[in-house]
Amino acid sequence: MPRPIRAAIIGTGAIAHAHAEAMAALAPRIDLVAVVDLDPARAQAFADAYGEAVHVHPDAAALFAAEELDLVSVCTPPQTHVPLAITALRAGVPALVEKPTALSLAEMDELVAVSQETGVPALTVFQHRYGAAGIRLARLAGDGVLGRPLVATCDTLWRRGPEYFALPWRGTWHIEGGGPTMGHGIHQFDLLLAVLGPWSRLTAFAARQALPTDTEDVSMALVEFDNGALASVVNSIVSPRETSRLRFDFEYATVEVEHLYGYTEADWTFTPAPGHEHLAEHWHAAPSDHPSGHRDQIAAILDAFAAGERPGVAVEDARRTLEFAAATYASAFRGRPVRAGEITADDPFARSMDGGAVPWPPADAADQKESAR
After folding, report:
1. pTM, 2 dp
2. How far is it, in rounded angstroms, from Cα 136 to Cα 61?
3. Which of 265, 273, 284, 320 is the most buried (most CB within 10 A)?
4. Domain edges within the chain
5. Radius of gyration (Cα) for the chain, nearest Å?
6. What's the fold here for domain 129-288+319-351?
7. Residue 235 is inside which H or E element, if any?
């Protein structure tokens, strides 16, 4: 039996628990051996919670100097994602990076270049691609079983109150990279893109409706895909009834999912068009006992390692999703449609998601602090 994959986690905040729990569920295939955090007490408490032999290191340099690793999860605030991932790649360790992978397309291109230079994979957490139903839908769509894709809707309607922004980096362009377009809805529209393929152009709106942030709290886009399909994408963190939903209308069937933070088989509905009822047999599957999440993606990474294959979602692939976010902001702030590939290296929206063109003033720091109380 091959030895377990030796893994580490950098950053022990809330999302790091999803990584650690996934690794624990996949034991003995993977073993969490070390963690890093700027807060030593928090790092030690995290290590104690996930194993007696989990080592604690003060920074990434100490981690890579001391440990023999096969995978590292980067779970820090977004501003640090690319620098830490590059440190890992240059140490020869594949990096699994939380979303958003990078704060800009320029940063993403830097990470892609280092991954190609070193030959070490840099991966993005887009776990909804790896649920059984998501995999099945992408396969059926790709094989043409459902006919031509016609219409889709993609809604991430969540709520985040002012207390959510008590962490000073949330709601900022320079650290978080954007609002719900970058930090919340990106999982849903990544699955949309994984199913429908390349997009060709979009028209978008963005607004700061209610929250004390520098970034938007709502964005909306109308999208045309290379295959002719049309879609709407809504990202919100001001919606009292929270839901995440996707609907795909193909020639021969409608496929829908509604969930919140992770779907199971029970969350999906398959409706064949009249005369195509036989297609339901392609959708039949055993019920799943856990929602789509980090466990599914990390399991797929382990499978790829075992087979000697390059795992997903590689940053070369994830760049397309980040470009969609950048185009959403560029269209919203410039007031015109944006085509895929239009945001080139010299474009301000390649260097930052706000493009230096945000139409509302920055939130007052004092107001943010008062609202968070």
Report:
1. 0.94
2. 41
3. 265
4. 5-127+297-314, 129-288+319-351
5. 21
6. Dihydrodipicolinate Reductase; domain 2 (3.30.360)
7. strand 230-236
